[in-house]
Amino acid sequence: MLWGLRQVEPQAAHGLAVDLLQRQIHSGLLLPAERLPAERQLSDRFGISRVTLREALRVLETNQYITVRRGAQGGAFVTDEERLSQLARRRMTRAPATTMRVVEFLTVNQLAASRLAAVRRGTADLKRMRQAMDMMTAAENGPQRKQSEALFFLALGDATQNPLLSRAIEDGLAELFLPFEKTGSEQTVSTALKSFEHLFQALSSEDVGSSEAAMTDLHAQLWDTVRRLTRNAA
């Protein structure tokens, strides 16, 4: 018996490239004003022609995700921090309930990941998470903190040794497109760092209960942030 079939929506190759690059920007893996790799490198990585890649870059530029500069020092650059925050606020204003659903999705999947990773993580997984935490500690601004947190959660997903769960976390991070906060207090940043450290130590010692508790703390902080940003974006 067939169930739940939906009409297939064809997507051009350049649309797939647009989606992949947007996901990197939304999740924070690409920083504001960061220069993208050269056209040849990007087209080879995506397995598409340079003509198709240029069409993807044109769409991203039209949608204000990137800027394209000409000349010897030119290239494609992620748009600046303020513009990205404007795009994120606009998205939240249009569909605030969607943002809440994304946080729910991440909460469920990252809590499950914290339990599984505590018993399945390997040395390489812990090394990746420690490197991400070192980046958090050294971060000088919101975009750098967001990037390091995304890298930590991606490493956590891989540590579960469950590709479906890892993919779910990656998808959730890509959908959670939040504006950067310029006024994050030192106390807020310090609290988050302590929670990440507690989570890392629990994972290192294979303590499932403490891993889940630390992740619960992190998600309580995320919910507070999202509610505040949603009010400000309204």
TrEMBL record:
Classification via InterPro entries: GntR_C, TF_FadR/GntR_C, Tscrpt_reg_HTH_GntR, WH-like_DNA-bd_sf, WH_DNA-bd_sf
Single GO MF descriptor: DNA-binding transcription factor activity
Domain HTH gntR-type: 11-81
Family annotation (CDD domains): WHTH_GntR
Keywords: DNA-binding, Transcription, Transcription regulation
Stated name of the protein: FadR family transcriptional regulator
